[in-house]
Design a protein that fits this description.
heterotrimer, A alpha/beta, B mainly alpha, C mainly alpha, A: alpha/beta, Rossmann fold, 2 domains, four-stranded antiparallel sheet, 10 helices, globular, C: mainly alpha, two-stranded antiparallel sheet, about 80% helix, transmembrane (chain C), transmembrane helix (chain C)
C-alpha cells in the first residue's frame, strides 16, 4: 500500500536520507530501526509530507503523493504521531482527539462521539475532560496515538511512542498497538525499545546513516553483521563472533 | 525631470538621515538578536531621549552633542531597569507577551510625555543647525554629516564591545545558546538587561544627533519605529552590519521617494519594501542566519 | 449550539437593550455607541487573534476599509447606506483574505505577522491620506440626511440598538465558531500548527477563513463608525489608535473567549472615562491607563478579566470540595 522509492533528503551538505526505499503490504506492523541520527524521523516526515524529498517518489495505494500537503495525506489515510508529543495544551483530552475526528465527521456530536470511542480504546476514557497539558508522559503518548487514530487512518506512522515510558507502561500500551493492527490498520513504527520491536513487528527495516542497510524478520535482521556494525561500530560483528567462539 | 545634481544631493541627504535610522535600528536589532524579542517601545524610548536632549538644551543650555555624554549612561540605566524589572518579569518568557508588554510600555511612555509636554512640537537651535559643507558642487548639511560619522563610529564601537569584551562575549553566548550560557554560569537576566540597556544607549546617541536638525513631540517615536523595524528586517534580524547598511539604504529610498512622489507619499516606499521583504525573504537582504 | 449556549448571550443583550430606556443623556449614549463599535471591531480581532492565535497589530486596515468603502460609495456613487454596510463588510473580508494569503503563504507568524499587518495598515493610511479619491487629508463627510433608509436616525437609541444587534449577531457567530469543526481546527492551528496538519487540518485554509471573517466583522464596525459620526479621515479610519484598541479589548477581557472583547471594551472605556473624570484635562490620561492595564493584564492575568473570574470561581469551588478532606488529614 505504501511504496517509498529511492527517496533522498539533503540538508545543506548533510545527506540525512540517502536513496532509501521501503514498501508495505496492507496489514501488519513493520518496524523502522537504526542508530540515533540515522534519518528515521526525516524519512517519516517525508512520508507524512512535512519534509519534501530532494529526490525519489512516494506512492500510497498506487497514487503518487510526493508533492501532496500533509493534510491531504491525512485525508488519504496516513496518520502520524510525533516523537516529541505535541498536545494542544489549551484543550481538553476529548477536544484534542476531536480535532482528529473532525477529519471524517463534520458534526460536533459525531466527532465527539468518535473521540470518546477512540479515547476508550487507548485507555484515556477516564481523562476525557482533563486539560491535555496536565497529562503524564504516558498519558500524552496515548493522546498522541488517540488523535492520530481518530483520523481513521489506513496507515499509521508511530514515531517512538514507547520512548520515555517505564517498563510497566510499555507493557500496558503494547496490546493497544496490537489491537489497532487487528482492526486492519497498517502500522509503520520507529522504535528504539528492541524488546518491543521483537515482540510486535513482523518485519523491520534498518536505516543507518541515511541508507537502508537491511530488511527482514526482526530476529534475522538483528543477527545481521551490517546491522550490528551500524549500532556498535566498525569491526564489532567480527569481535562479537570471536568473543562468542572463545566463550563457547 | 530632475537634474542629476538634485538627485545626487537627495541621495546623499538620504544617506545621512539613514545613518540616524541605522543607529536607532542598531539598538533594535541588538535587542532582537539577543533576546529574540521585538521591542515595540523602542520608538517611545527614542522620544524620551529626544525630550531629554531638548530639556538639557532648554533648561541647562547644554549643547545637544554634549548632552549625549550624560544621556548614554542614563538611557542605559533606564533600559536595564525596564527589561530587568518590567518586561522580563511581566512577560513570563513568552514572545507574544513581550510584544504586548512593550506595546503597553510604549503607550504609557508616549502618553506620559503627552501629559507633561502637551502635544506641541519643540525644536532647538544651535549655531551649526543650518551650516553646510561644500563638497564640489554639492552642499551638505554639517550636522547631518556629523550624524553619519558618529553612526559609523558607534556601530564600530558596538562591534568591538560585542567581540572584544567579556560582557560582549557573554552577550553573544546568550544570543547563541541561552540554556548553555546559563549552565556555564552566565547570569542570563542580567545579560538580557545589559543588552536592552545598550540598545537604549544607542537611542541616546541617535537623539543627540537628531535634535539639531529635527523636532520633537510626544508622538514622534512612532514615525521612527516602523522605519527602524524595516531597517532591522531588511538588514537581517540581529545583524549589526545589516542594520547599518539597511539604515543607509532606507534613508536613500525615503529621500528619493520623497523627491519623486512628494512628501505625503514618500514614506510609502519604506513600508512597501518592508512588506515585500517580510513576505519574500524574512531573513533579510544582507544574509544573516536563517 | 444548544439552548444553554444561547442563554448568557440573550440575557446580556436584553439587559443592554434596556439601557437607553433609562439613560437618555446624549453624551452617555454617544459613549455607549462608541464603546459598542469598538467592542464589535474587537470581536473581529478576537476571531483571528484569540481563536486563531495570529496577533494582528494592524486591524485598522479593516476598520478603515469598512469606513472608507461606505463613505465613498455614498458620497461619490450615491449608493444606499444599507447596501454600503453590506459592501463594506465584504470589502473588509476581501482585504483580510488578501493580506492573509500574502502573509500566511509566506509562513509569517508571531511577531512577523504582527509587524506585517501593522505595515499594511500604515500603507493604507498613507494612501488614503494622499489620494484625492479618498478625500485626502481633508477626509470625507457623509451628508447629513436623517432617514432610516440612509442609516441615519434622529434618535441615538435606535443606532445604539442597531449596533447592539450586530454585536449580538457576532456573539452568536463566535459561539458557533467555538462549537464547530472550523473553530476546533482554528484553535488546533493556534496551539500547534504541525500537529494540526498531521490530523488533516488544512491550516492555510483555516487561517484564511479566520482572517476573512475577522476582517469582515471589523470592517462592519468601521462602517458603523463612519455612519454614526458621519466624518472620517485617514488618521481616524486607518490610524494606529484603532489597531491598538481592537487588540487591547480582547486581551483585557479574555482572549479567545466569546464575551472577552465586549467585557474588555467596556472595562477599558469605563476606566478611561473614570481616569478622565479624576485627572481632568490631562491629555492622554486614558491611554496611560490603557497601556498600564495592558502590562498588568499580561503580567498578572493571562486570560484577561474572564480568565481571572474563572480562576476565582474554581478556587471557590475547590475550597468547598477540598475542605473536609484537609480537615480529616489534619485530624490524623
Amino acid at each position: 500500500m505504501l511504496a517509498v522509492e529511492g527517496v533522498s533528503k539533503r540538508f545543506g551538505g548533510l545527506m540525512a536520507v540517502n536513496n532509501a526505499s521501503l514498501s508495505l503490504q496492507p496489514g501488519g506492523i513493520v518496524g523502522l530501526i537504526g542508530p540515533n541520527g540515522a534519518g528515521k524521523t526525516t524519512l517519516f516526515s517525508m512520508i507524512s509530507g512535512f519534509v519534501a524529498p530532494s529526490d525519489g517518489r512516494i506512492r500510497f495505494e498506487g497514487t503518487d503523493i510526493t508533492g501532496e500537503e500533509p493534510h491531504r495525506r491525512a485525508e488519504l489515510g496516513i496518520g502520524r504521531t510525533f516523537q516529541i508529543v505535541q498536545p494542544f495544551a489549551g484543550l481538553t483530552v476529548c477536544e484534542n482527539i476531536a480535532v482528529g475526528a473532525y477529519l471524517r465527521h463534520a458534526k460536533r456530536a459525531d466527532a465527539t462521539a468518535k473521540a470518546r470511542e477512540v479515547a476508550r480504546r487507548v485507555g484515556l476514557g477516564t481523562e476525557l475532560d482533563r486539560p491535555a497539558g496536565g497529562l503524564t508522559v504516558a498519558g500524552r503518548k496515548r493522546l498522541e496515538l488517540a488523535r492520530a487514530l481518530a483520523t481513521e487512518p489506513t496507515l499509521l506512522l508511530l514515531d517512538e511512542v514507547l520512548a520515555g515510558l517505564n517498563p510497566s507502561e510499555i507493557r500496558d500500551i503494547l496490546p493497544v498497538i496490537r489491537g489497532i493492527r487487528d482492526e486492519g490498520v497498517t502500522i509503520l513504527m520507529i522504535e528504539h525499545v528492541m524488546q518491543a520491536v521483537m515482540n510486535l513487528c513482523e518485519r523491520v527495516y534498518v536505516l543507518a546513516q541515511g541508507r537502508m542497510i537491511a530488511e527482514g524478520p526482526p530476529a534475522v535482521v538483528c543477527a545481521d553483521a551490517r546491522v550490528i556494525e551500524a549500532y556498535l561500530g566498525h569491526g564489532a560483528a567480527a569481535r562479537l563472533k570471536a568473543e562468542g567462539a572463545a566463550h563457547g | 525631470m530632475y537634474s542629476p545634481q538634485i538627485i545626487l544631493e537627495a541621495a546623499l541627504n538620504g544617506l545621512m538621515t539613514g545613518a540616524v535610522y541605522a543607529l536607532i535600528a542598531l539598538g533594535l536589532t541588538l535587542i532582537y538578536g539577543v533576546l529574540h524579542i521585538i521591542n515595540f517601545a523602542h520608538g517611545a524610548l527614542l522620544t524620551c531621549a529626544m525630550f531629554a536632549v531638548w530639556i538639557a538644551w532648554a533648561w541647562l543650555g547644554m549643547d545637544p552633542y554634549l548632552a549625549i555624554l550624560p544621556l548614554v549612561p542614563l538611557m542605559f540605566v533606564l533600559g536595564y531597569g525596564l527589561q530587568r524589572f518590567v518586561i522580563g518579569p511581566a512577560s513570563h518568557g513568552d514572545d507574544g507577551n513581550i510584544l504586548l508588554v512593550t506595546l503597553g510600555l510604549s503607550i504609557v511612555l508616549e502618553n506620559v510625555l503627552l501629559a507633561v509636554f502637551q502635544s506641541d512640537t519643540r525644536t532647538l537651535d544651535t549655531d551649526y543647525s543650518f551650516q553646510v559643507v561644500a563638497l564640489g558642487p554639492l552642499l551638505l548639511s554639517y550636522p547631518r554629516l556629523i550624524g553619519l560619522g558618529v553612526a559609523v563610529v558607534v556601530t564600530g564601537l558596538l562591534w568591538l564591545v560585542l567581540n572584544r569584551t567579556d560582557t560582549g562575549k557573554a552577550i553573544r553566548a546568550v544570543a547563541k545558546e541561552k540554556l548553555g550560557a546559563n549552565l556555564v554560569g552566565i547570569d542570563v537576566p542580567h545579560v538580557y538587561a545589559v543588552t536592552f540597556g545598550l540598545g537604549c544607549a544607542c537611542l541616546a546617541v541617535a537623539a543627540g544627533l537628531l535634535m539639531p536638525t529635527f523636532y520633537v513631540n510626544p508622538r514622534i517615536g512612532g514615525a521612527f519605529v516602523l522605519v527602524a523595524f524595516t531597517v532591522v528586517v531588511l538588514g537581517g534580524m540581529g545583524s549589526l552590519p545589516g542594520a547599518l547598511l539597511g539604515g543607509l539604504f532606507i534613508g536613500v529610498v525615503e529621500s528619493l521617494c520623497g523627491l519623486f512622489l512628494g512628501d505625503s507619499l514618500g514614506q510609502i516606499g519604506i513600508f512597501l519594501i518592508f512588506i515585500a521583504v517580510l513576505l519574500v525573504r524574512p531573513t533579510g537582504l544582507f544574509g544573516a542566519k536563517a | 449550539m444548544t439552548v444553554r449556549d444561547l442563554i448568557p448571550i440573550a440575557v446580556l443583550i436584553l439587559l443592554a437593550a434596556l439601557l437607553p430606556l433609562v439613560v437618555t443623556s446624549s453624551p452617555v449614549l454617544n459613549f455607549l455607541v462608541f464603546m459598542l463599535i469598538v467592542a464589535l471591531g474587537a470581536q473581529g480581532w478576537n476571531i483571528l487573534g484569540g481563536f486563531g492565535g495570529q496577533f494582528s497589530f494592524g486591524h485598522a486596515a479593516f476598520f478603515g476599509t469598512g469606513a472608507y468603502v461606505t463613505a465613498i460609495l455614498q458620497t461619490r456613487y450615491g449608493i444606499n447606506a444599507w447596501a454600503g454596510l453590506v459592501l463594506a463588510t465584504a470589502a473588509g473580508a476581501a482585504v483580510g483574505w488578501v493580506i492573509g494569503f500574502l502573509s500566511f503563504r509566506s509562513g509569517l507568524r508571531g511577531s512577523y505577522f504582527a509587524l506585517v499587518t501593522l505595515a499594511f495598515a500604515e500603507v493604507f493610511r498613507i494612501l488614503a491620506n494622499a489620494a484625492s479619491f479618498t478625500g485626502g487629508a481633508a477626509g470625507l463627510l457623509i451628508k447629513l440626511d436623517v432617514r432610516p433608509a440612509n442609516l441615519q436616525f434622529d434618535d441615538r437609541a435606535v443606532f445604539y440598538w442597531l449596533v447592539l444587534a450586530l454585536v449580538a449577531a457576532v456573539l452568536l457567530l463566535t459561539r458557533w465558531i467555538q462549537r464547530s469543526r472550523f473553530g476546533a481546527q482554528l484553535v488546533a492551528v493556534r496551539e500547534n500548527e504541525d500537529a494540526a496538519k498531521a490530523l488533516g487540518v488544512n491550516s492555510l485554509k483555516v487561517k484564511l477563513r479566520a482572517i476573512a471573517l475577522s476582517g469582515g466583522v471589523t470592517a462592519l464596525s468601521g462602517c458603523l463608525y463612519a455612519q454614526y459620526f458621519l466624518y472620517i479621515d485617514a488618521n481616524i479610519a486607518y490610524g494606529s489608535w484603532i489597531s491598538v484598541e481592537l487588540l487591547l479589548a480582547p486581551i483585557i477581557g479574555g482572549v479567545g473567549t466569546v464575551f472577552g472583547p465586549v467585557v474588555g471594551a467596556l472595562t477599558l472605556h469605563g476606566l478611561g472615562e473614570l481616569a478622565k473624570q479624576f485627572a481632568g484635562r490631562i491629555p492622554g490620561i486614558d491611554l496611560i491607563v490603557f497601556g498600564g492595564v495592558l502590562v498588568l493584564a499580561v503580567a498578572f492575568a493571562r486570560g484577561g478579566i474572564l480568565g481571572l473570574l474563572e480562576r476565582l470561581r474554581d478556587r471557590g469551588r475547590g475550597m468547598v470540595t477540598r475542605g473536609p478532606k484537609e480537615v480529616s488529614h489534619a485530624g490524623r
